[in-house]
Design brief:
about 350 residues; alpha/beta; Nucleotidyltransferase, domain 5; 2 domains; five-stranded mixed sheet; 11 helices; about 40% helix; globular
Length: about 350
């Protein structure tokens, strides 16, 4: 199968060409600079950028892969979850491609695609499903934080998720309180590298609860009050780095502890991590340390596949096709609130 995949769930316009488990091309047009001015993603602006960039990005992917449109055998796109007005651009474009080519269309759940991104490795990227094993997956991004037990290919069970702010949202809001630019997660990561993670004590929400849920709004509020009561700290470069390191340590400890605990409870020996926040170096380091201590295998998505991208959409669409999952109707609508727990399991 040669497949075109599109991803427009938020502020990245991406197109990929996938053939027999290989990513022949994966082109991403980011809108970060556009939204930095506003301190977050503006849906209307995101949609305009998708409209402007989608066809050039798709053409670039086809060109990079050396594929002609008539050679495509299927088309896939993110159907949800995400920003409705952004999803609409990619979904309708993909359905139009499929209709014009008289080829099947496959709608993909963005979160489900993240589950399989750690198995896409190398350059050029190849889906390494021969090494697949039951795993505890941590999906951690700006809008979502969840733990998922993946028992076999296309069979998963959501164990828990965020009940308020996601980890990435906590990073960004903490950064805003500290006067850092959007997106603040990568900035905090860099500053924290030379900071003292034990300088300031911030709460670890739900760390000792027996469930698999997350809550980061209290941590964000704690930082807000701390900065209010100690306003001069952010003007001191070293103390700012210490603040970043301390807040980051709190987030990372919660993520790692709950992920490892869930893996032990589920009886699996493999942990995976994906989503934009999985690029965080402290999170990768602590996950690796915790997994090595327990003899677990760790698979973390490659940095280029942590953020939104069409490669993971295309790889999952191809796997679904190979497993006999029926195509998605060409008149299917976007599903902005599509929960991972609602995704049908493999036949």
């Amino acid at each position: 199968m040669t497949l075109l995949a599109l991803e427009t769930s938020c502020d990245e316009t991406s197109a990929a060409i996938v053939r027999e488990g290989r990513v022949l091309a994966n082109v991403v047009s980011s809108q970060i600079k556009l939204h930095t001015e506003y301190g977050g993603v503006v849906p209307e602006l995101a949609a305009r950028e998708h409209l402007k960039n989608l066809l050039p990005v798709a053409r670039a992917a086809l060109s990079d892969a050396g594929i002609l449109p008539r050679e495509l055998e299927a088309v896939a796109a993110t159907q949800g979850p995400g920003l409705g007005i952004a999803l609409l651009i990619g979904l309708k474009a993909a359905q139009s491609f499929a209709f014009a080519l008289n080829k099947p269309f496959i709608g993909i759940n963005h979160h489900e695609a993240h589950l399989y991104s750690p198995w896409i490795v190398g350059q050029p990227a190849v889906a390494d499903f021969a090494a697949f094993q039951p795993n505890l997956s941590l999906i951690v991004s700006g809008g979502h934080t969840m733990l998922v037990l993946v028992e076999s290919e296309l069979n998963h069970r959501v164990l828990g998720g965020t009940i308020d702010d996601a980890a990435g949202e906590c990073f960004d809001k903490t950064g805003k309180l500290l006067g850092l630019p959007y997106p603040a997660g990568p900035v905090i990561d860099r500053l924290a590298e030379t900071g003292n993670p034990k300088a300031y004590a911030f709460p670890r929400p739900l760390l000792h609860e027996a469930n698999d849920d997350f809550s980061f709004s209290g941590l964000k509020t704690s930082v807000r009050y701390f900065v209010r009561d100690n306003p001069t700290l952010v003007d001191d470069p070293q103390k700012l780095r210490d603040l970043c390191a301390s807040a980051q340590a709190a987030i990372v400890e919660v993520l790692v502890t709950k992920a490892i605990r869930a893996a032990e409870r589920a009886g699996v020996r493999c942990v995976t991590a994906s989503g934009g926040v999985s690029c965080n170096r402290a999170l990768r380091k602590e996950l690796a340390r915790a997994c090595e201590k327990r003899g677990f295998t760790l698979r973390v998505a490659e940095p280029s596949l942590c953020t939104d991208n069409a490669a993971m959409i295309g790889i999952l669409a191809e796997r679904k096709w190979l497993h006999g999952v029926a195509p998605t109707p060409l008149d299917a609508e976007i599903r902005p609130g599509w929960q991972l727990a609602e995704v049908p399991q493999s036949p």
